[in-house]
Amino acid sequence: MNQPEKEGVSSVSKRILGAVIVGWLFLFAGVLLSAFVFHIFSLPEGAIPWVSAILCYIAAFLSGYLAAKGVKQKGFLKGLWAGVLFVVVYLIVALLMQSQVKIWNTIILLVLSVFGGIVGINQKTKAKSKKGILRR
Q: 129, 135 in Cβ contact below 8 A?
């Protein structure tokens, strides 16, 4: 009948990989939207690094949050793994773009993803009802 979900290595890695992909998609969409806003409203270029950093921080938090949402324990660890994967991709993109990588930014990204994991594990998921009928 109802079998408890077993959380193996493959389900954890799929969860973390999916969370990091969603984080990067959020970052990509945020950069496109902010570029559109900067173009339409003629905002000063000095605000671009601030906006991009904030978007990157939110994406790292979101990755940690989604990696740990719905699991029963060790959310900080799942958030940390999502943060490590997020930072690895961040470093690869930064090196390909030949930009400077600041160690404080990577530490902040890791801390925010761990914090996202801690917040994500404390979020309750909706209880699944049997055949769509709520039981009382």
A: yes
